[in-house]
Every structure is written in structure tokens, then in C-alpha cells.
Amino acid sequence: EDQVTQSPEALRLQEGESSSLNCSYTVSGLRGLFWYRQDPGKGPEFLFTLYSAGEEKEKERLKATLTKKESFLHITAPKPEDSATYLCAVLYSNYKLTFGKGTLLTVNP
Amino acid sequence: DTAVSQTPKYLVTQMGNDKSIKCEQNLGHDTMYWYKQDSKKFLKIMFSYNNKELIINETVPNRFSPKSPDKAHLNLHINSLELGDSAVYFCASRLVGEETQYFGPGTRLLVL
After folding, report:
1. CA dist., res. A37 & res. A55, Å (int)
2. What is the pLDDT of residues A81-99, one digit of tens each?
3. How many CB atoms sit inside 10 A of residue B82's CB?
């Protein structure tokens, strides 16, 4: 069964303390890897799509990278407003989007 | 400029009742989805429609019946609600040829 595993489950950072979130996936039939941000009581908000190993995308303090087995979401000098759950999802050849369980990021001022 | 909208936002009901959730998108997309997010925040696909045709139907109890009257709308009807149906239900949409799905704000269903 296709699987998406995110780590850590929760991450607490001080404002300005850079870190990375990990998303690993089973390899066969990857059509794309997606990162979403979800705030409490809201729907997932699209951040990035990555299609092939070596690809990188950036948006403000966030940078997503993709290898053949995993993706990283790097957060540089985070601010409290970056606090949210970050979801990784993989689209396999069956066109179903499979989500990981998310990483709950808390950035303390 | 709402993209994907859902009604109602909250739904509290008794076990055994029948209820519907509505979804509308104004993005011009032709594929729509229903997802369920359980108490552990795990998002799982339930159904997908493309141009009013059902294309993904996960192992969901047949008490759940999606209906798509047109490309911009996808509704979810749930019969004989059970306690375990309590969750947040998200609608999403995308354009064929593009992979990114855009999500609605969710409907929080609580079955008592």
C-alpha cells in the first residue's frame, strides 16, 4: 500500500530557529508531491508541488526539496505566524492523493 | 472571491439522522473530491467526480452517497448517521491536466 510518513509529529522552535520537516514516501508511481499548510479550524492551504528529484521551490521563509525517497520542508528564521500543521501528500499513478499525518509546528516568540 | 466553499460549516445531529453537506467551487475546475479528516487529523480520500462522473470510490460505507449536479458542485449525503461519522469533511477541486487540489474550509460534523 502506498504510504506517506512525516516526521517529526510535532516540532517546537524558537522564533528565528531554522529547521526542517521530513516526508518520506514509497517510491513506485509518483506523479507529484505536495505540501500544504493547515491552520486550526481551516482547510489545507496549498504551498508547493514538486514533480522530480532535485526540484526545489521557495516561498518566503519556506523551501521545499525533493529526492527519490523523501521531501524536506525547510523553514528559515521562522516567525510565530508560521505555526501550523504542515501536511505532505503524494499523488500516485492511481491519481489518489495520499496524505501523511502532518507535522504540528509551533514557533514561540 | 471564495474559491471552494462548503455549507454548513458546523453540523450537529443525532444518531440515525440523514444529513447533506454541499460544496461549490468557482475556479472552473472539472474534478472534485470529498475527504474525511478524523480526530487524529488524518486526511483520507472518499470520493472523486470528474465532469459529474464518479471516478474514485474508496471503501466507504454505502450510507455515504455523493452527488454532482454539475461540474461546479459536489454534495455528500449521509444516511443513518453513526457516532463514528463524526469528523471534518473537506471538499477539494482541481483542473484536469493539473495535479494541485484546492481545499474548502471544511464541515465539522458531530453525531451525538
Report:
1. 20
2. 999 999 999 988 777 889 9
3. 12
